[in-house]
Amino acid sequence: MIYLIMGVSGSGKTTIGKALSQKLGCTFYDADDFHPPENITKMSKGIPLNDSDRLPWLKAIKLVINQHQKQNKNSVITCSALKQYYRDLLQENTTDIIFIYLQGSYETILKRLQNRSEHFMKENMLLSQFKTLEEPENAVIIDINLSVEKIVQEIIAQTYAKIEINNNF
Predict the structure, then answer these.
(1) 55 or 43: whose pLDDT is higher?
(2) Pairing with 168, which of 9, 46, 89, 96 sits 20 to 30 Å away (CA)?
(3) In sequence order, what E strands does 26-93 have?
(4) Could you give the CA distance from residue 72 to residue 56 in angstroms, rounded to a whole number?
(5) Which residues contact 106 (CB under 8 A, 6 or more apart)?
C-alpha cells in the first residue's frame, strides 16, 4: 500500500508522514527531496511553480510509487498533489494508493509557516498554493488541528475502513 499524504505547504505532511511510516514500519519519502535544483531556486526566490516545473518532480515521485508497487512494499510518500491532474498522474496504473489530505485553514497554516525558518517555501507563496488547490473528493480527509498522534490514529482507522470497503466490492 502507498499512503500519499497531500496538502499545501505547512499542513504537516513531513511530520505526519514520518510518524505514520514509523507507526506502520515502512519507508518514508518526502517529495521535497525530489525537486530539481531549479525548482528549489525558484521557490526560494518566492516564485510559484507552474505545471511544467512540477512535471519532472511528479514523474520522479511516480517512479518511486511504481517501484514500490512492483516490489509489493508499503511506503508513505508526501506530495502536495494540489491538482486532480497531479493525483491522476501519480495513481495512473496504480491500484494500491490512498490519498490522505491534511486539511487546514489558510490562517492556521500561515501561522505555522511564520514559525518555520529552515524551508525553501516562503509564506508569501501559501496563497498561490491555496488558489491552485483542488480539494480531493476521493481521499481520507484529516483535520490538521489534531495532535500528531491523533492524526496518525485517524489515518490508520480511516484507511483501513477504506481498504475494507474497497475489498468488499
Answers:
(1) 55
(2) 89
(3) 27-30, 75-78
(4) 24
(5) 126, 127, 130
**pTM, 2 dp:** 0.88
- Average pLDDT of the chain? 88
CB 113 within 8 A of CB 126: yes
pLDDT tens-digit series, residues 123-160: 667 888 898 999 999 899 999 999 999 999 999 999 87
Half-sphere exposure of 167 (CA within 13 A, CB side): 7
Tens of pLDDT, residue by residue over 22-44, are 999 999 999 889 988 898 888 77
Q: How far is CA 25 from CA 2, 56, 70, 76, 109, in A?
A: 13, 29, 19, 10, 28
d(C-alpha 154, C-alpha 151), whole Å: 5
* φ, ψ at 153 (rounded to 5°): -60, -45
Residue 3: phi and psi, rounded to 5, are -100, 110
pLDDT at residue 169 in the model: 46
In the chain, how many H helices and how many E strands? 7, 5
Residue 50's closest CA among 30, 98, 58?
58
Q: Which domains does the chain have, with CATH numbers?
A: 2-167 (3.40.50.300)
